[in-house]
Amino acid sequence: MTFLRSTALLFALAAPAFAADPELTVFDWAGFEEPVIFQGYIDKYGQPPTFAFYGADDEAFQKIASGFKADVAHPCSQMVSKYRDAGLIEPWDTSKIPAFKDIDPKFLDSKVFKDDQGVWYIPTDWGATAIAYNKDKVPAEDVSTLQVFVNPKYEGRTSLPNSSDDVWALGYLATGTTDWTNVTDEQFNKAAAWLREANKNVAAYWADPSEQAQLMASGAVDVAWSWNDGVVYLQNDNYPVGFQRAPKEGSSTFFCGYVKLKNGTGKSEKAYDFINAWLEPRSAKGLLDTIGYGHTSTVAMETIKDEPAVKEGLSDIDAPILAQTPNSPEQRQRQLAEFEKIKAGF
């Protein structure tokens, strides 16, 4: 099955899946090792970088903070402040990144990413978190609302990501909060109570999109809070998957990119070659086809704007959107601690 190509990585997260160019180590999400996303690097060096993988942003941060060595890492936007505050990253020299000018300015609209000290983050990819469901078993009206995740009809038939950010985005949306940058105690507690109800229906928290796809394809679950890539894997395997991005309460968006880690053991110029390959317009099609994500480069997105996958999984929707932009590190830590309690049944 197509989506199983990275399942083995679940048993070897944060260890190199394969050794390639020893002069650049990329700490990345499983699935982003697809050569078509950074073909320019392979064209130049004849081999891909060495990859090590993780399944969750907080997991990746903890490993780097504990001394794991890599040259670049791929956090989503809300994590960058943690890397900065911990002194784990250094600014990029954008004079060495010609296509930096093509990045949509909305992805750099934060002093966390860009300030008078330099550019700390190169946004590269973005996607949606919404409802994936089995169209043969789940009526469309059931997924017209996020309350499907607390519907007793689906007890033991749902799956949520083992990602605090994505789960809290769901909880906030389901309880009427669409902006998490200034959450009140009342909003937090309301979302937490809802997530405790949702936890009763969860068969499993997926750690990786391939795991989510496997859970659905096996028949173990019928409804999941999903990124685009899990949907792509299921579509490639001819599973009857639907992707409801416009339930009445809305859905979420996120974007991710690369940071340059301090004290990397590889060659700095190869980190720039990797980013430059990522920002080539041709990478957009490979990113879309293999993972289902959009590209941050306006030039790159122009090359795929008419693709069906863009219209289905990345287009504007007529529903609220909670954008997973940087929020307070203290709030994220509070959410993470509460999420662990919720998963444990407390």
Automatic annotation (TrEMBL):
Keywords noted in UniProt: Signal
Q: Which residues cross the membrane?
A: none
- A family per Pfam: SBP_bac_6
Task: From the UniProt annotation, give the residues forming the signal peptide.
Answer: 1-19
Origin superkingdom: Bacteria
The protein here is known as: ABC polyamine transporter
Source organism of the structure: Paracoccus aminophilus JCM 7686
